[in-house]
Amino acid sequence: MTKQSTNPCARQISFAGKVRTFNLNDPKVSAMIAGGAKLKQVARMITISRLGIGRAPLAGPYGDTAAACHKRFLEKIYSATDVENVITLGLIGGGMPEDEAFALVDEHVVGKPLEANALIASETIAALFADKEDAQA
Fold it and tell me: Model's pTM, two decimal places?
């Protein structure tokens, strides 16, 4: 098993024709969410740019934390940006290269109806707050 698949916050979810690992509890992703990511690599700079320079990737009503974003999903007041960024960050945290994660989101999320992708994003962010056994109960 990979590190991502043994992480209690990782989820295996069908997306873009395959079962993929989504994990917002990865240290690199946590740093991106918190704004503490080091900009040492060009790929990282592109990632931060795509997620919004000067804007926390999960910013919105209630704040810019994962808990605030989770609340938006629970109350169904999430934005298209919330859906796109949670899925992108989840894929990166699940071990997918950043450029591949953005390409998949561009193809399967951006400009598409929100409902199906919002379910994936909601499950991904909820995983930070409940382990797999709680989620299945």
Answer: 0.84
